[in-house]
Design a protein that fits this description.
disordered C terminus; 6 helices; globular; alpha/beta; 257 residues; two-stranded antiparallel ribbon; seven-stranded parallel sheet
Amino acid sequence: MMARWAGKVAVITGVSSGIGEEITKALVIEGVKVVGLARRLQRLQDLSKKVNTADFFPIECDVRNEEQIIKAFQCVEKKFGGVDILVNNAGALHVCSLIDTPTKEYCRIIDTNVIAPAICAREASKSMRKRNVGGHIVNINSIAGHFAHALHTPIGMYGVSKYGVTAMSAELRHEMIAENLKIKVTSVSPGLVNTEMTEEFIEEESRKTILQPKDIAGAVMYALGTPEHVEIAEVTVIPHGIPIEGPFKTTRSYTIW
């Protein structure tokens, strides 16, 4: 069912590595025009060499900067006429207890994981509503946004932010229904994934047994490939045979977008 997206336009945040990079590759293969947002210009240039450059359009963008987000969507509007798929993938993680975290870290996590996706969803839905298209918004969430009671490793504001993504996804879906829009909303909630964001926290021997970025890209493609009358509200993906809280080993911050 991915054929219906061929020639359509996707905006993906956090494409500089990991999950965002793999989703980009998967969509480009299907003939989707991908506008990739990331703040690391060199990484964007590197990704351009890995995909069909005719269908990949990198934009340097810091998702904590609303002006840059809006400008990026304006560029998409001007060049392509609008966006059909949004994947909110950019995220920030801080493995530290909430009571030991400075306020600036609270803001960094919430701005990246909650405010930025909300702004992107607003701008994307404006484009979809104006053209009355059957669009799709995918939020890369986390099991931390559902099962805080089972995660005994301190993750500070991260879990709080991901619960926000869970609520945001539900709210967006309700609003699409209320306005009789043809826009689907999917929350994809992975367990531990072998990405740059987790490499400093996970024991080396465990890295091959946890989820890989391609696994999450596959879940996104599954949701996008459903028939028009089917909406996947939530996809939970966990590594087989690994405790839900995982083998964390240190305390550090990481941001990926």
